[in-house]
Design goal:
- With 741 residues, this protein is of the alpha/beta class.
- It contains 24 helices and 30 strands.
- Strands 20, 25, 26, 27, 28, 29 and 30 form a 7-stranded antiparallel sheet that branches. It has a 5-stranded parallel sheet with strand order 4-3-7-8-9, with helices on one face. A 5-stranded parallel sheet has the order 11-10-12-13-14, sandwiched between helices.
- Helix 3 (130-138) runs parallel beside helix 4 (156-172), helix 10 packs across helix 16 and helix 17 runs antiparallel to helix 18 (530-539).
């Protein structure tokens, strides 16, 4: 796990320390020394350390090192923009340049040491910011911004330079934005807009432009953090900070790579506790996208399946495009908590309503059938031959008179309906103008969410530009897909936060007795034999078959009698991962002679293949059940992760699995099972009895405990197959594979 922010911890064989180059300041949690309540059983933090960024965004004094007013110089435009920004936020600005007496008419200091006052923020307009860091530390500067490029985004040499810069920043005690950042933090935000705002975080400044432009549609923005290469301050720091800001209604992120997976989860957890939605575009879903992201910011992108699961686990809403980021963040920032999850679709065209309803239902939105009484009420104003069950088709004419508002109010009055969506595929004055105004007026008088999809390709109509966009209560979209994505995210977010319990609050702080037993079984840098891996499982209370490890044919026969026929015999050795392919598994043995023959055959094959054995396992044969796989792998960003999926040969054929990042509780373990495409197998199919899902969940949670306690000592663990027996009979780990770190 990477760690490079103040107060970010990692572990090395259960010793807690701060990852650093040089001598960092003592680690803190919220400005104090950490205690056992702040750290989990692995020594990792349980709470985000929220940086105080008030003086970054609203400094009282600013210095610009390398300030210039010479036309044609790279720093001149930046200096000019910083002067204008400082004036807007009420900060005193001090140019710094060794050979200039003034810049743009402002007196210039030759060095930081000569500044007339202590400054809050310094902008570094120099090619190499490293030499300035020590000077800034001596001047007790709190924040600095490095615009220079040529660091980790350029390759190994640049990454080394960035590491030196990061180490200097850690020693200094100041906080740094960049390098390879830009001026987005110092943009001019509209002050005339009201309501909850969007706070924006981007690792590529240009990608934030569409969200910034939402101000032109009346959506308020409060902050923009262009994090660049994140040598120090990273996206997670800004998520934690923005989640605490009362004016922030939603956080929108464009993320190319996560610097520290643990820090990201802690930040997302803080936002979830506060009920602040985080919407993110995370690039790197494909191999090509991951390569481009790394070349741009020099960060790990991580296994995308793990990133995706981690985001869902902590309530981060992942979207694919910048248009979805715009629309989803705007809706989540402004919409109130839904009173019901039902969606009603209302249109002046039956075809439009049916099309939209199909798409919405396929996306998982609930479209309740309106009650007979409600349908009768609607038919007072809508002809009887039109369907009003949901979607509601008014036929067109009622929207042009007094009936239009009556229909809208009647739909919104239904207790099943929490969201009303009206797709208007194209302007059809005066119908569309009157319909838009009625929807805006109704939205002002209800707590329910009213959405409009304005389908005109022009977008210059008064009904759209003035009526709909002029309303702070109506959410207006230009496409069906973006409306559905945003509404689903809105309902999912409020459902998630309403029942949210932070997994970090329940994470174990001290090792279990199982850990002490298991640690004695670890063999650093080695793969464990099946027998040793099963001993590891036993230490954590995970059931394995009755079995004995033997080293002779006679002992095998005695073991079979004790285990009970029929038996399975398997070669066991530290270098055996795929025994079946080598013919090193024999099943269904029912007699002593078969056991003796099997022992000789297994040992002969092992000698022929030059595979060292620690013996042969004589195992109880377990036949009935659903084969699953449960395992632990080590992700480069998030550390230990837990996976569950369909097992046996289906693992590699179907790749049907779900993953979570510890810690997590029983609800998340059950959610993992619900994500599997083959989950119906656990319910019983073709006459099979339902499987013992409770036992499977318990195994997942015990494996999670192993991941938390042994995460720095175990590189990989597979239980495959885990035979989940019929309900009430438990689950048995038939085979196990483990590699120590």
């Amino acid at each position: 796990m990477l760690g490079s922010t103040h107060g970010t911890f990692t572990t090395d064989r259960r010793r807690t320390h701060v990852v650093a180059c040089g001598e960092p300041p003592p680690p803190t949690i919220h400005g104090r020394a950490p205690t056992t309540d702040d750290l989990d059983v692995s020594g990792r933090p349980l709470h985000a350390d929220v940086p105080d960024l008030d003086r970054f965004f609203r400094p009282e004094s600013v210095a610009v090192i390398g300030a210039s007013d010479a036309e044609g110089r790279p720093g001149t435009g930046i200096t000019r923009q910083l002067i204008a920004w400082a004036e807007r936020v009420g900060a005193r600005l001090h140019p710094v340049h060794p050979t200039r007496r003034e810049v743009f008419g402002i007196p210039c200091s030759p060095s930081v040491a000569d500044l007339p006052e202590q400054v809050d923020l310094v902008a570094l307009l120099v090619a190499d910011p490293l030499p300035a860091i020590e000077q800034l530390a001596e001047a007790k500067v709190r924040f600095a911004v490095a615009f220079a490029s040529g660091f980790a985004e350029t390759g190994e040499e640049g990454a080394a330079a960035q590491a030196r810069l990061a180490a200097a920043v850690r020693r200094s005690g100041l906080r740094l934005l960049g390098p390879n950042t830009n001026l987005n933090a110092f943009e001019e935000f509209r002050e005339d807009l009201e309501g909850p705002a969007i706070a924006l975080i981007t690792q590529s400044g240009h990608q934030g432009r569409p969200v910034f432009a939402l101000q032109e549609l009346g959506i308020r923005l409060s902050h923009w953090a262009p994090t660049g290469n994140e040598a120090d301050l990273e996206a997670s720091d800004f998520i934690s900070y923005f989640a605490e800001r009362p004016e922030v209604g939603a956080i929108a992120c464009y993320v190319e790579g996560l610097k520290d997976g643990r820090a990201f989860l802690l930040a997302a957890d803080r936002a979830a506790r506060r009920g602040v939605p985080v919407v993110a575009v995370k690039v790197g879903r494909t191999e090509a996208g991951a390569r481009m992201a790394a070349s741009h910011t020099g960060k790990l992108t991580g296994a995308d399946a793990v990133v995706d699961a981690a985001m869902r686990q902590f309530g981060v809403i992942r979207v694919d495009g910048l248009d979805e980021l715009q629309d989803t963040a705007a809706l989540l920032a402004r919409a109130r908590r839904p009173s019901a999850e039902g969606v009603a679709v209302y249109s002046i065209s039956g075809g439009t309503g049916a099309h939209f309803s199909d798409l919405a239902a396929e996306a998982g939105l609930m479209l309740p059938t309106l009650s007979a009484a409600k349908q009768a009420e609607l038919h007072q104003w809508i002809p009887e031959y039109l369907s009003v069950a949901n979607p509601v088709d008014n036929g067109g004419h009622p929207v042009g008179d007094w009936r239009g508002r009556k229909i809208i109010d009647a739909i919104l009055d239904d207790p099943q309906v929490g969201v009303l969506i009206c797709p208007i595929t194209g302007p059809f004055p005066p119908m569309s103008d009157k319909l838009a105004q009625d929807l805006v007026d109704a939205a002002e008088e209800t707590d329910k969410l009213v959405c409009v999809v304005w389908g005109s390709p022009v977008g210059t109509e008064d009904a759209y530009r003035r009526t709909l966009l002029g309303s702070s209560r109506v959410a207006t979209f230009r496409t069906f897909a973006n409306c559905i994505t945003a509404v689903r995210a809105h309902l999912d977010h409020h459902r998630f936060t309403a029942g949210y319990r932070s997994p970090f609050d329940e994470a174990p702080r001290t090792p279990s007795p199982s850990f002490r037993k298991a640690q004695a079984l670890m063999r650093p840098g080695q793969q464990l034999s099946e027998h040793a891996a099963k001993q590891l499982l036993r230490a954590y209370g995970i059931r394995v078959p009755r079995e004995q490890l033997v080293t002779s044919a006679a002992a095998a026969v005695r073991a079979a009698g004790l285990v009970g026929y029929p038996v399975v015999m398997k070669a066991s050795g530290p270098q055996l991962a795929h025994k079946t392919e080598l013919g090193l598994v024999k099943i269904g043995l029912t007699s002593a002679s078969q056991v003796r023959d099997a022992y000789r055959e297994l040992t002969d094959i092992a000698r022929y293949e030059d595979v060292p054995l620690d013996g042969v396992l004589v195992c109880q044969m377990v036949e009935r059940g659903v084969e699953m796989v449960v395992g632990v792998t080590h992700d480069a960003l998030f550390g230990p992760t837990v996976t569950v999926g369909l097992g046996g040969v289906l693992v590699e054929v179907l790749r049907d699995a779900a993953v979570r990042v510890p810690p997590f509780g029983e609800d998340q373990a059950k959610a993992m099972l619900s994500e599997l495409r083959g989950r119906a197998l656990l319910s019983g199919v073709r006459g099979a009895a339902p499987a013992d899902v409770d036992a499977l969940v318990e195994v997942v949670l015990r494996v999670q405990r192993m991941a938390l306690e042994l995460g720095d000592e175990i590189a990989e663990l597979d239980i495959n197959p885990l035979m989940v027996l019929p309900r009430g009979q438990g689950a048995v780990a038939l085979d196990a594979f483990a590699v120590c770190r």
